[in-house]
Amino acid sequence: xxxSGGAPSRLLGAWVIRSVGAQALENGREPRLANLAAGLxxxxxxxxxxxxxxxxxxxxxxxxxxxxxxxxxxxSLLEVYTRTELEAVIAHCLVRLRDRRRMRRMGLAVALGxxxxxxLGxxxxxxxxxxxxxxxxVGLEDDLAAVSVTGYPPALASAISKAEPASGRFAPLxxxxxxxxxxxxxxxxxxxxxx
Length: 195
Prior knowledge:
Blueprint: H1 7-19, E1 23-24, H2 31-43, E2 50-54, E3 61-65, E4 69-74, H3 75-80, H4 83-98, H5 100-112, H6 141-150, H7 153-162, H8 185-193
Parallel strand pairs: 2-4
Antiparallel strand pairs: 1-2, 3-4
Helix pairs in contact: 2-4, 4-6, 4-7, 7-8
């Protein structure tokens, strides 16, 4: 995925959106989602993402870069999540979208059908407690950054618990995905419960 949002990013993002059956959010539909996304984007000094709804599947959300930032939320998530849980999911998605280098790596992994890799070329590690002074990725940064925006760890923990983990080629792009580059949902919830 290109930092500049170039053709490879748009094409890959469009392919993923099309593959999951997402539909662009129509004006006036799901105002709670649109208002939360706009407000959180303002709080993060980011452009509001293009919003999509995935009509099928269990509760989850997907992030891609396709002519800008895009967040696709499953209809089931919109139906069963509370306002604070939805806010936590959107904050998490926006935080992930801000890290353009990692979005490029995830996009490349999706395009090649391989696990996401760290900047050093090794497969990204799942969560582990960092050694003091360690520069290794922890795997929980997005959760911690999302909580710093919302100020409410229990909502994010609950949202992760309720999500239906995605697997397969697009797993790195999902809010809760079963991907070797990310910590297991149970571990994420446990770490958030300790905050």
